[in-house]
Write a structure and sequence with these properties.
Elements lengths: L1 H14 L8 H96 L1
Length: 120
């Protein structure tokens, strides 16, 4: 009995007609081309939409770079100014010491001259 069931279903398959279908490969190529075209159009639209922002981003990056350069130059100038101030302070200290030594030597010279005048 089981064999008969299989034979019956096989006979029904042979009675079915064939239906011709379209070439699916061509359909896939058309869908792919359509998707590619849509993506290209979307990319162009996005570019034109974000182009002004891209320009402002470039300007911002350039301004940040200029700020970094100016900041570095400012730090260098500040360092030079501090070093100049330190040199000036050191030179003033040395001048004060030399002036003090000159006064001491002038006092000694005056003392020796008086001593020499008293000997005469």
């Amino acid at each position: 009995m089981a064999i008969g069931v299989y034979r019956a279903s096989t006979r029904q398959l042979t009675k079915a007609g064939f239906v011709l279908t379209r070439n699916r490969r061509r359909q896939h190529l058309l869908w792919g081309a359509l998707c590619g075209l849509v993506c290209a159009l979307l990319a162009i639209l996005l570019f034109y939409f974000f182009a002004p922002e891209a320009e402002s981003v470039r300007q911002l990056a350039q301004a940040r770079h200029e700020l970094a350069v100016m900041s570095r130059k400012n730090d260098e100038r500040e360092l030079e100014l501090r070093m100049t101030g330190a040199r000036t302070g050191e030179l003033e200290r040395q001048i004060d010491l030399l002036n003090q030594r000159i006064r001491e030597l002038q006092d000694e010279l005056a003392f020796y001259r008086k001593a020499q005048e008293n000997k005469k």
